[in-house]
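We emphasize that the prediction below concerns an isolated chain of 297 residues; any contacts that depend on oligomerization or on bound cofactors are therefore not represented. The input was used exactly as deposited, without trimming of termini.
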Amino acid sequence: MSSSPPPPNGPLNGIAQSIADAFAGKQDDQLRPSALDLFIWQRGGKIHGGGIRGMKLGFGIAGGVNLGFGVLFLALTAKQPGFIVPASIMGFIGLGFLIATAFLFAKYRNRDNEVRLTKEGSQLLYRLVNHVGYMNPHQYSGARYGSPWHRFWGIKTASNMLSKQGFDILESAAGQFVRINAQVELDANGLKRLSRNSGAVRLAAEETMITLINQVALLEQHPESLGAIADIAKKEIAKMVELGDRIEQSITGEDSLLGMHRGGSAIDGVLENLRMEQDALDEIRYSQRENRQEERS
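Result of the prediction step, given as a token string:
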């Protein structure tokens, strides 16, 4: 009876086995991005804007330079018609860069938040964004979180950059932020009961996150301030929980003013008619039974 070979020993064999397991598809099913990771992908880069400002400037300069060469080559076509090809190419490239710049300005425009990042908060968010990344790898690359490539290079998550206390605070708040944002998105694509309040809801949740990022940045530098900062965080997170609960009630609650004003959906109307019809039939049957009992007595 043959026995299986012994497991490899030594650090080199362990690394080789890890790589082999990763590309063989042996992945940890429990690997999930944290709520703070999701918040950073959704809003982190937009709130900080540091790297985005550099991209805007770079695309703008590249667009201007390419358009300049395009105009120069176009002017040279008067003496040499062959320059029309490079003129067209440079013109299209420059136009593409300028369109990309306009897109970045539209998508990553600075919001008029009353609550601003402090110097410490800005530094902390900058480190988090650069560690976790600007984009959700699952959403944009199609690679599942914890894919072989992630396992080989290591998963970049916000918890690696924060103390346990700081991460717990921001993770709790980010969980509520993601919940609120998801409810607003569902409402925008559905009954639209929040209507004009959706922008205020997003802004309120975002400003609360900025407040807590500022507080956690201080906590990371001064761990002895945990007690005071934890009290502030507890109150702010409680407000976000209440905001999420009230939004959920406004969207799904039948007794909400918005729900009464807008009325139900088509399926609600059909179900209500069927219920009324069933109630009427039950009442008729009950009356008929009572009449028969009276005739027999």
